[in-house]
UniProtKB/TrEMBL annotation, chain A:
Keyword list, A-Z: Cell membrane, Membrane, Transmembrane, Transmembrane helix, Transport
Similarity remark: Belongs to the binding-protein-dependent transport system permease family. CysTW subfamily.
Organism: Terribacillus aidingensis
Annotated GO CC locations: plasma membrane
CDD domains: TM_PBP2 (cd06261)
PROSITE patterns: ABC_TM1
Cellular localisation: Cell membrane
Protein name: Spermidine/putrescine transport system permease protein
Main localization, broad class: membrane
Membrane topology: Multi-pass membrane protein
TrEMBL record, chain B:
Protein name: Spermidine/putrescine transport system permease protein
Membrane topology note: Multi-pass membrane protein
Any Pfam family hit: BPD_transp_1
Family that this chain belongs to: Belongs to the binding-protein-dependent transport system permease family. CysTW subfamily.
Subcellular localization: Cell membrane
Swiss-Prot/TrEMBL keywords: Cell membrane, Membrane, Transmembrane, Transmembrane helix, Transport
Ranges for domain ABC transmembrane type-1: 58-260
Organism: Terribacillus aidingensis
Length: 268, 269
């Protein structure tokens, strides 16, 4: 295929990329501003970063966010893998399709609706809003994406592989741990990472189901931003950007190493 | 040796999840939509929804979602098209996606600075002699930021369908004397319509229900269905009315999904 693109197209692409990254670098740039505003750069300073690392409240919130993300990704991956196995067992096409539709409801639902309905659910169940309600919600909305990442891997697995393992005397447990799990590992990784990003990225659902005592980063940024501009957020976003880049690179390496991982199209 | 019931034990967590976090919440929303403020069964919420205030809000919410989707598509399609022509296209695609992994709130917050009174956008306007303007808390900035947020999700499916396009069709069209515009209109676009539909679905439904962007960027200029639900649930504490709006949002969602057809790809915003 020829790779010619006109200079005009080239400019268009450059502008698009510039626009996409502009807000992020804008934030990072002003995190070094001694002026305390997101305009009129005065002089270079690292004060914001110093402040940030002394701001224990914010650090605890970051910690909360990470704990919620890791725990919810871990638990939803386990449940999601079990769910994918169950869906894979269903033979009837119609039953399978309706199960998948049920599975996908939380993926297509707008966040506001997930948040509002979970708020009703937790209130009726008498669960105090806070850490556990946030954790449960994050697990709940991450499960379906794990299922979607793992299911293709499970269904492409040849049944003769399992037969062979059983013929050779493997117990059910051994078939599971020695054959099935290693085979679907790329799918599991992809699911885990997606669950992680869903959790880290979530604002709306958490906003609904978090009580007074518990906050995650998104919710905190929202309430800070509603009060106006605080360059602590800028410093924080620099750090988040760097961490995201590291995660992206790790993810890229993992998916490239395990060649047949779900391709980019499953991403969103 | 193994009886059937122990064999199905592993299904329990997933089935519980479906029952409690998929089916129950929908039923609860439906149930609450029929309750008035005192907890009695009533249809007042539905009557309220069909008053001009809510209908107007719904219409404007649709209008903005439509506008956002259209603008996003107009910028995403050429971008995706040009990306497929680049040498390291998968790497470039990854670079398009990376911003979407930065927390949404941070990006919205960045625009508070860019569109602010003394921000970069106004500096630019002054430099080209248009003078500074109130940008923040207008519907322009709302649409702009929303397009910014959604564009990677629109580019992705379109890129994928363009990438799968069989290049020999283009050669054939070319050989048969089709102009570049005809080739695009009669071959490229129809063959990538699935990607476009998926992208529109990914954009339109979340655009209907955005609420934090509306609050942060548009101030009180724009009210979407999402803002209304948040308002009813968390400010007014009228769960009944909030649920009713949610029921309608769910119905609209199904209509949009049905209209955009493709059942294969899904997304959340």
């Amino acid at each position: 295929m020829d790779k010619r693109i006109s200079p005009l197209s080239r400019i268009f692409l450059i502008v698009m990329f510039a626009l996409l990254y502009l807000p992020i670098f804008y934030l990072i740039f002003y995190s070094f501003n001694s002026g305390g505003k997101m305009y009129g750069f005065e002089s270079f300073t690292l004060d914001r970063y110093r402040e940030l690392f002394q701001n224990t409240r914010l650090l605890i919130i970051v910690l909360n966010t990470v704990v919620i993300a890791l725990l919810s990704a871990l638990i939803s991956t386990i449940i999601g893998v079990l769910g994918a196995m169950m869906i894979n067992k269903v033979r009837s096409r119609r039953a399978r399709d309706s199960l998948l539709s049920l599975n996908n409801i939380l993926i297509v639902s707008p966040d506001v609706i997930i948040g509002a309905s979970f708020l009703i659910l937790f209130t009726i169940a008498g669960l105090k809003l806070g850490f556990y309600s946030v954790l449960l919600s994050h697990i709940a909305f991450s499960i379906p994406i794990v299922v979607l990442m793992v299911l293709p891997k499970i269904s492409e697995m040849s049944p003769s592989l399992l037969d062979a393992a059983r013929d050779l005397g493997a117990s059910r447990w051994e078939v599971m741990t020695k054959v099935v799990i290693p085979y679907i590992t790329p799918g599991i990784f992809a699911g885990f990472f997606m669950a992680l990003t869903y959790s880290l990225d979530d604002f709306a659902v958490t906003f609904f189901v978090t009580g007074n005592g518990f906050t995650t980063l998104s919710v905190e940024i929202y309430s800070l931003a509603r009060r106006g501009i605080s360059l602590d957020i800028n410093a924080l976003s620099t750090i988040i950007f760097l961490i995201t880049m590291v995660i992206v690179v790790i993810y890229y390496l993992i998916t490239n190493r395990t060649k047949k991982a779900p391709d980019m199209e499953v991403f969103k | 040796m193994e009886n059937k019931s122990t064999r199905s034990l592993y299904m329990i967590p997933y089935v519980i999840w479906i029952a409690f976090f998929v089916i129950a919440p929908i039923l609860l929303v439906l149930y609450y939509s029929f309750q008035d403020l005192n907890g009695n069964f009533s249809l007042t919420n539905y009557q309220n929804f069909f008053t001009p205030i809510y209908l107007e809000m719904t219409l404007s919410s649709f209008w903005y979602a439509f506008l956002i989707t259209l603008v996003t598509l107009l910028f995403a399609y050429p971008t995706a098209y040009l990306l497929t022509k680049l040498k390291h296209k998968q790497l470039w695609l990854l670079l398009i996606i990376v911003p979407s992994w930065i927390n949404l709130l941070l990006k919205a917050y960045a625009f508070l600075g860019i569109f602010g009174t003394y921000g970069m956008a106004n500096k630019l306007l002054e430099a080209i002699g248009m003078g500074s303007k109130q940008l923040l808390f207008t519907d322009f900035s709302f649409v702009f930021v929303a397009v910014y947020i959604f564009i990677p999700f629109m580019i992705l499916p379109i890129f994928n369908s363009l990438d799968k396009l069989n290049a020999t069709y283009l050669d054939a069209a070319n050989d048969l004397g089709a102009s570049r515009w005809t080739t695009f209109r009669r071959i490229v676009f129809p063959l990538t319509i699935d990607g476009v539909k998926a992208g529109c679905q990914i954009t339109f439904i979340p655009a209907l229900s955005l609420f934090m962007l509306t609050r942060l960027i548009a101030g009180s200029q724009v009210i979407t269905l999402g803002t209304a639900i948040e308002q009813q649930f968390l400010v007014t504490q009228d769960w009944g009315m909030g649920s009713t709006i949610a029921v309608f949002l769910i119905i609209f969602m199904f209509i949009v999904m049905f209209a955009t057809g493709t059942k294969r790809r899904r997304a959340r915003g």
